[in-house]
Specification:
Layout lengths: L7 H6 L2 H5 L4 E5 L10 E5 L5 E4 L4 H4 L4 E5 L3 E7 L10 H20 L3 E7 L23 H12 L2 E3 H5 L8 E2 L11 E2 L2 E6 L8 E6 L11 E5 L1
Parallel strand pairs: 5-6
Antiparallel strand pairs: 1-2, 3-4, 4-5, 6-10, 7-10, 8-9, 11-12
Helix pairs in contact: 4-5
């Protein structure tokens, strides 16, 4: 789950895990620097071997954007990548600092075992991943720098599972909160399941889906099945 916006105190005081998720092992990484902001969570019915929070970097970990669970034969990483912001005010931080350290972290994990990384990457990778791409190169999430960094991650040995199964399909995961954007399908594909290209690991992925019929948020769920 991305952009949970919860505090550790709220989770404890309201017994969120006990009441709503009693059948799960629950892991929450919440923003320390700014309350009610960002945050990610993983709910798992399988107990991981280990859980780590963040990137082991004080400059990047105060906003609660990364959780990594280690299982027997793969890592599962949940991420909520920073938005470049209105007027691209955080673009340089995003592309020069965050992307650099996050990608370095994923490459390091990949050397140890298989990796599944999922979440809101806050970038539409190609023109297929955004409605009406013409003239949007200066919008946060579609700048040349952000798209180039995402391609660099792919080139480092990661597979976009949705594109692996559907190379020519246009489908979105995010619609802005404005009139009729969901109805008119004026969306972006910002949410991904990426897997490391380690040996035959990709053969374990049965399918990768965007569940656009699920409502209740400006994003919709995404899903992969493993065998």
């Amino acid at each position: 789950m991305n952009e949970t916006r919860l505090s550790t105190e709220y989770l404890k005081e309201n017994r969120i895990n006990e009441i709503f998720f009693p059948e799960y092992y629950t892991y929450w990484n919440n923003s320390i620097e700014r309350k009610g902001y960002s945050g990610v969570a993983i709910l798992s019915k399988i107990k991981p071997q280990k859980c780590t929070f963040g990137l082991n970097s004080q400059s990047h970990d105060l906003e609660g954007r990364v959780i990594t669970l280690q299982f027997e034969d793969f890592y599962l990483v949940s991420v909520y990548v920073p938005n470049a912001g209105e007027g691209l005010k955080r673009l340089q931080y995003r592309v020069d600092e965050w992307d650099y350290h996050f990608h370095k972290y994923l490459i390091k994990l990949k050397k140890r075992k298989n990796v599944i990384v999922t979440g809101d990457f806050n970038v539409a990778h190609t023109e297929m991943d955004i409605y009406n791409p013409l003239g949007r190169e200066k919008q946060p999430g579609f700048t040349i720098q952000e798209r180039g960094n995402f391609q660099n991650l792919i080139d480092s040995g990661y597979i976009d599972t949705f594109r692996h199964f559907y190379p020519d399909k246009t489908q979105f995961t995010f619609w802005a909160n404005r009139a009729n954007s969901r109805i008119s399908n004026s969306g972006w594909r910002l949410d991904y399941f990426l897997i490391s290209d380690n040996g035959n690991f990709k053969e374990r992925i049965v399918n990768s889906e965007i569940l656009s019929n699920y409502m209740g948020s400006d994003h919709c769920p995404i899903k992969i099945n493993l065998k």
